[in-house]
Amino acid sequence: MRPTPLHTGLGLRRGLLPELLAMDAGAVDFLECAPENWIAVGGAYGKGLAQLAERFPITCHGLSLSLGGSAPLDRHFLGQTRQFLERHQVRFYSEHLSYCSDDGHLYDLMPIPFTDEAVRHVAARIRQAQDLLERRIAVENISYYAAPYQAMSELDFIRAVLDEADCDLLLDVNNVFVNACNHGYDAWEFLAGLPQGRVTGMHVAGHYDEAEDLKVDTHGAAVKEDVWTLYAVACGRFGSQPTVLERDFNYPPLAELLAETARIRTVQCASGGQTDE
């Protein structure tokens, strides 16, 4: 039997758990969680996750693997992640194309230098992670506000990593818009330059307008109209990939979030990108 197509998803956050548990089964196609926030969690939260996993397919988006870091990958954590993915029959697992640790956890997603050396370094770590997890993973383009060093463009760096690692891309459309505004490139040209066959999922989220040329990726507000426009362009190019609405704080009533997830499906259909897979 072919798996059910996943088109529209919502981030599974603890602050939303009571409302998600009461949500109608057909409200979204799937829920996405960060495995490190749920591994070995028991009590009411663990029970809630188990109940949701019985009703909705679960996808996972990691926060702390630190693919661009210098310390060895955490094999114990990767083992725990693999067990979590298997237990909940997770079809898609992604991580950030960044690093988040040095001597300790930095609690932020730090940009990797855009160099050939960095491409080889992070691609080797992605291949290692894929081997240990025994599955193909996707990496997400992050938002960044200062670049440590750029010997190549962000687009060329991402393309090189995808080719060298032979992995997929989780395309964060809001991050493309934010980076394009902050770093002065054309978001539409950026999307046009990404390899179509690598994109296996997308994210949309809200951001904060600090200034005309400074946007901050917050995940704390509704998706902006400019991002919806860019998302339509992405759907036209990459098709109806599983798309998650990310909201991390300032939670509105669930009905408002579901109106945004419904708009994801509307954009997919209008762009001609939605299929029955």
Describe the structure.
This protein is of the alpha/beta class and 277 residues long. The chain has a single domain (8-270), classed as Alpha-Beta Barrel (TIM Barrel). Helix content is 40%, strand content 19%. It has nine helices and twelve strands. An eight-stranded parallel beta barrel has the order 1-2-3-4-7-8-9-12. Strands 5-6 form a two-stranded antiparallel ribbon. Helix 7 packs parallel to helix 8 (225-238). The longest helix is centred in the middle third of the chain and has 18 residues, at 116-133. The chain starts with 7 loop residues before the first strand and ends in a 7-residue tail after the last helix. The model has no long low-confidence stretch (mean pLDDT 92).
Features:
8-stranded parallel beta barrel, TIM Barrel, 12 strands, alpha/beta, two-stranded antiparallel ribbon, 40% helix
Write a concise synopsis of the structure shown.
The chain has nine helices and twelve strands. It is of the alpha/beta class.
How many DSSP-defined strands?
12
Structural class: alpha/beta
Classified by CATH, the class is Alpha Beta
CATH architecture: Alpha-Beta Barrel
The separation of the N and C termini measures: 12 Å
Number of helical stretches of at least 4 residues: 9
Indicate the overall shape: globular
Total discrete domains: 1
**Global mean pLDDT:** 92
What CATH calls the topology is TIM Barrel
Classify the beta-strand content into a percent band: 15-25%
In CATH, the homologous superfamily goes by the name Divalent-metal-dependent TIM barrel enzymes
The secondary-structure element order is EHEHEHEEEHEHEHHEEEHEH
Question: What assembly state would you assign to the polypeptide chains in this entry?
Answer: single chain
* CA-atom Rg in angstroms: 18 Å
- Quick one: biggest sheet? 8 strands, parallel, barrel
Strands of the biggest beta sheet: in what spatial order?
1-2-3-4-7-8-9-12
Low-confidence stretches: none
